[in-house]
Amino acid sequence: MDPPNGDVQGEVYGMRDDGSVLLVEWLDGAAGDIAGRAATWTEEDGIQIIGDGSLLPGWSGIPQDIADDGTIVGFDFLLGNRRAWIQPQGEGPLILLETWVEDHGGVVDLDLGLSVAQAISADGRTIIGHTSYGGAWIITITPPECPGDATGNGSVDFEDLNLVLANWSQVVAPGTGGDVDESGVVDFADLNIVLANWETNCL
Questions:
Q1: How far apart are CA 163 and CA 152, in angstroms?
Q2: Which helix (H) or strand (E) holds 136?
Q3: Closest C-alpha to 170, from 159, 186, 193, 194
Q4: What stretches in the chain show pLDDT beneath 70?
């Protein structure tokens, strides 16, 4: 990892499943860092700081895991205190995980809190972690309704149209193979739903 001259200290905490992105805590002595900053490392781009490097100024940002869509989870650490965070789709600032969950309709037991976000599933729909003292927790994210999304990727596009056309007039298990109206047959009703919701992004 660059630079190789000893000016930087850090640890690797995780990586994308295909190994293309490393998640690191980056402490750059040359830049005067006194706390580690959450960062990614790729062969192409080298080190890229995640958000501001931490949720809270002066805390160490520690990234733990990354989903296929680039969403990163981790936590800030200072003197034994921890605060879990998330960066949706790998863009923008770090967000306190409790706030993000509540903004998306979830309820967090504030007596326990979400201290450490330790892992996120490849599809980004499950996050696990632990509290400081009260044990483990799991968050399951229910995807929004997305009419016409035959492939389940969160958008209505050519993949959905191709699936409907590939199984045209076929009897299938309801809700599979392009049967978006769950009638058990892939037909004009399914095609119409896909076209009526064309280019909708439900994520």
A1: 11
A2: strand 136-140
A3: 186
A4: 1-9, 29-34, 110-112, 203
